[in-house]
Amino acid sequence: MSTNSKKIISWIPRALVLAAALVLINTQLYQSQIIDTLEMGFVFSLLAMGIFISFRILDIPDLSVDGTFALGASVSALLTYNGHPVLAIFASLAAGALAGGVTGVLITKFKVQPILGGIITMTALLSINLLILGAPSRSLWKNNTIFTLMQSVLKDYTDIILSAAVMLLVFIIMFWFLKTQIGMSLRATGDNEFMVRASSINSDTMKIIGFMIANALVSLAGAMNAQITKTGDTNSGTGMLVVGLASIIIGEIFFSRHTIFSGLAAAVFGAVSYRFILAFAISLGIDTKFTKLLSAVIVVIAIALPVIKKSVSGGIKLLKERGE
Amino acid sequence: MLKIEHATVIFNAKTVNEKVALKDFSCDISDGDFITVIGSNGAGKSTLMNAISGSLMLDEGKILLDGKDITRFKEHKRARFIGRLFQDPLKGTAPNMTIEENLGLAYSRGKKRTLNIGINKRDINLFREKLKALGLGLEDRMKTPVGLLSGGQRQALTLLMATFVTPKLLLLDEHTAALDPVTAKKVMEITDDIVKKDKITTLMITHNIDGALRYGNKTIVLSQGQKLMDIKGDERKDMTVEGLMKLYSKTASDSLSDKMIL
Ligand SMILES: Nc1ncnc2c1ncn2[C@@H]1O[C@H](COP(=O)(O)OP(=O)(O)O)[C@@H](O)[C@H]1O
Ligand SMILES: [Mg+2]
């Protein structure tokens, strides 16, 4: 069989899943629900792209994510509350980069184990976020956000257009960045650190840069989420790492992670899909309490699937051999 | 050009597992030298190389490059002027990046990495030309991830990457040992070609006595972390594999393995 026809055949189950999903979307959700879900998907694709940088590009688990998502939410809510919603977005990017930089320095300069380094930052942020926001959560119902500011121009479609625009902008910037000399050095650092150092690249610096970018994006997601839902919550980060990972893994069913474009596309597509899965679950009457459990299950299934596949096909082979 | 003075490396110092891997080693490498290093397993050859490249720090002694003390320089800083190849073909390249991306990284060695685009059209033409010279057909596969290449192809590519920006010093640590004999010969020929053409000062570790005498202009014999012999000039011209074996067994407490004669 030619590789081309093989490729087409391998796409058939994916196409079926996609078709089924579209039918479900049409029958189960109202149009306004679809648009809401898409909006949230675009916001959370920022989270997924951030996690793509640390987990996939650098190949280092970064556990500060839950903290930096809430950091973005806190910074954004504070500034929005005080009348600076646009500044809030940029400030949250900077705050996220700073937090990521701390994790990076802990891991590279102080030789803290990566997982512990992330946990330390995340734990510190629990207090810092409360300090920033001054309360566990803050409602922004009476305040202008970047979304309400654009309402006069974009009318009913403000939320979807603005969230899509930010997602696209970040997508394009990341795609370009990863092709620059620094971006290529960053990718190589996750791929073969040995070779990177032998090519006169400071791998420590690259890791720090990577963590800064990753957490800036995660924080941006938290900030956008706070403004679109009109609540800043210091607890909004809980479980976000697993949600982001689940998104990436779902996306990788459809897009391989082997080129930058498809890797970023997987993050976006996965984040949107995750939101739809969630919307279905809720439309079926599943309590929102269980959504985090759902994301945990998705991650476990996705990671276990190759192992299960292997043992099943191994079992079939064994049966065949016995039959002969 | 490169001066190593009283270099000593001790692993697990002050424990029961203490191991002096390099002991009071000194040598002077001149511009254009092609020095081969042999010694039995565990003699400290790789330790010497790692100490020069900075992936290991010396416990005692000094390393001077063109009179400048680089003993405390970090690995990535030394890599600006030192190119290196490892025994393991997997170590020298980034497997998930394409051939051209790997070359692009090597091409900016020693320069500051910027936000300029990693590879432009002009680079690609240069890469193609250089790949063609290897004679492995890699010039037609520039968008292929390096992970899909064979060990020999990866090693040849690593060689190209290490010498793309001509280094002051090229370090080769048994870089053909993991390859099949035919491929090993081919990679060694390419190595010799590049070193001669660009007149690169080279330090090559080899497990093969014949190769150690055939290539280069000097041979250093290591045993138990110490320099046992320094063979050069007429003495080297007349030296045979058997002669070296005999000389070795007279001075060293262990013996070179039979494998090394092949
Ligand atoms: N990281 C290490 N920790 C402890 N001992 C080491 C380490 N690396 C090498 N050694 C020991 O140092 C000695 C020299 O090793 P090496 O330089 O790799 O020898 P070779 O000449 O075979 O390349 C060996 O006895 C080896 O076991
Ligand atoms: Mg060795």
Number of helices of chain A: 13
Structural class of chain B: alpha/beta
Percentage of residues in strands of chain A:
under 5%
DSSP strand content of chain B: 15-25%
| Shape verdict of chain A | globular
- The CATH superfamily of chain B is P-loop containing nucleotide triphosphate hydrolases
Mean pLDDT of chain A: 92
Strand order, biggest sheet of chain B?
A: 6-7-8-3-9-10
The count of DSSP E runs of length 2 or more, i.e. the number of strands of chain A, is 2
Largest sheet of chain A: 2 strands, antiparallel
Assign the CATH architecture of chain A: Orthogonal Bundle
Choose one word for the global shape of chain B: globular
Tally the helices of chain B: 9
Q: Structural class of chain A, please? A: mainly alpha
- Cα-atom Rg of chain B, whole angstroms? 19 Å
Please give the most extensive interface between any two protein chains, plus how many residues each contributes.
A-B, 23 and 36 residues
Distance between the termini of chain B: 33 Å
Question: SSE layout and pairings?
Answer:
The complex is a heterodimer of chains A (324) and B (262).
Chain A: H1 3-28, H2 31-57, H3 65-81, H4 85-108, H5 114-133, E1 137-139, H6 146-154, H7 158-177, H8 181-191, H9 193-198, H10 203-229, E2 231-233, H11 240-254, H12 260-283, H13 291-323
Antiparallel strand pairs in A: 1-2
Chain B: E1 2-11, E2 19-29, E3 34-38, H1 45-53, E4 60-65, E5 68-69, H2 75-78, E6 82-85, H3 99-107, H4 121-134, H5 151-164, E7 169-173, H6 181-198, E8 201-205, H7 209-214, E9 218-223, E10 226-232, H8 233-237, H9 241-251
Parallel strand pairs in B: 3-8, 3-9, 6-7, 7-8
Antiparallel strand pairs in B: 1-2, 1-4, 4-5, 9-10
Helix pairs in contact in B: 3-5, 5-6
Polypeptide structure, described:
The complex is a heterodimer of chains A (324) and B (262). With 324 residues, chain A is mainly α. Chain A has one domain: ABC transporter involved in vitamin B12 uptake, BtuC. Chain A is 80% helix and 2% strand. Chain A is built from 13 helices and two strands. A two-stranded antiparallel ribbon of chain A has the order 1-2. In chain A, helix 7 runs antiparallel to helix 12 and helix 11 crosses helix 12. The relative contact order of chain A is 0.17. The model of chain A has no long low-confidence stretch (mean pLDDT 92). The model of chain B has no long low-confidence stretch (mean pLDDT 92). In chain B, helix 3 packs parallel to helix 5. Chain B is an alpha/beta fold and 262 residues long. A six-stranded mixed sheet of chain B has the order 6-7-8-3-9-10, with helices on both faces. Chain B has a four-stranded antiparallel sheet with strand order 2-1-4-5, covered by helices on one side. Chain B has one domain: Rossmann fold, CATH 3.40.50.300. In chain B, strand 4 and strand 5 form a beta hairpin. In chain B, 34% of the residues lie in helices and 23% in strands. Chain B has nine helices and ten strands. Chain B starts with a strand and ends in an 11-residue tail after the last helix. The relative contact order of chain B is 0.18. Chains A and B meet through helix 8 and helix 9 of A and helix 2 and helix 3 of B. Bound molecules: adenosine-5'-diphosphate (ADP) and magnesium ion. Adenosine-5'-diphosphate (ADP) binds next to strand 2 and helix 1 of chain B.
